[in-house]
TrEMBL record:
Residues 50-85 form the EF-hand domain. The keyword Calcium applies. Residues 90-109 are annotated as: Disordered. Gene3D superfamilies: EF-hand. It comes from the Eukaryota. This is S100-A6. Residues 90-99 have a biased composition (Basic residues). The keyword Calcium applies.
Length: 109
């Protein structure tokens, strides 16, 4: 399987694996999100951007529709933001913790 194919299928598979544990099907509640962050993100650079230790802050940042759970679209935004942080680290541009409303107007990569 090509690398990008593998990345895409992994993102979907990880989401579905954790989203079907408890709560609404195909959405991540706080506990499910915490498990994803604890088990699937091991890089210290990425853990400092979004971590399971501050699950309230992570939920607030990710749950754009404020329904108390993270749907697949919101999860994809999180993965995309983490990928951008890794890109910025690799290119020396730096990355800010938690993309909030004050950063939405910044130029996209």
């Amino acid at each position: 399987m090509a690398r990008l194919d593998q990345v895409i299928t992994n993102i979907v598979d990880i989401f579905l694996e954790y989203a079907d544990d408890e709560g609404k099907k195909r959405q991540l509640n706080k506990e499910e999100l915490k498990r994803v962050l604890e088990q699937e993100i091991q890089s210290p650079e990425l853990k400092e951007k979004i971590n399971a230790g501050d699950i309230e802050e992570a939920m607030e940042m990710l749950d754009k529709n404020h329904d108390g759970e993270v749907n697949f679209r919101e999860f994809c935004r999180c993965v995309c933001d983490l990928a951008k942080c890794y890109y910025h680290k690799k290119t020396g541009k730096g990355c800010k913790k938690g993309k909030g409303k004050e950063q939405e107007g910044e130029q996209e990569d």
